[in-house]
Amino acid sequence: MYRNDKVIRRYSEPFKLKILAELTIGKHTKSELCKLYAIAPTTVNVWIKKYNRKDLMNTRVKVETKDEISRIKGLQKEIEQLKKLLLKKDLDAMVLDSYLEVAAEDLGYKSVIELKKKLNIKP
Which segments does the entry list as coiled coil (predicted)? Predict the structure, then answer.
């Protein structure tokens, strides 16, 4: 089985599935697995297509138009604003919980939950 002085290898189905399973786990990258098992990266790509595992294929999205670029920048700004709002909300909740702990202790309640029930605040 030689073609232009190269050995043509045949791999068993379980071996192919084992490589794809290891790739799925993410312990090794595709190139690391190829070096480890002496497999060509194109061969692994063929297996990915054969077993319809497109989630394992390294795909890239190319953005070319100015509209797409400006839209992505706008979405990134929106994400940052939402992160800040979420952080503020979390901090406000922490401050409220701290106030309630101090108030519960000062007013003689056994727990913050007991105080929240008294004040009709959702736990």
Answer: 65-92
pLDDT in tens, 65-94: 888 888 889 999 999 999 999 999 999 989
Backbone angles phi, psi at 62, to 5 degrees: -100, 125
Domain residue spans in the chain?
Answer: 13-56, 86-122
Query: For residue 57, what are the contacts with CB-CB under 8 A and spacing of at least 6?
Result: 45, 48, 49
Biggest CA-to-CA distance, the chain: 88
β-partners of residue 2 are: 7
Q: Which amino acid is at 29?
A: T
For the question of whether the overall pTM of this predicted structure is more than 0.85, the answer is no
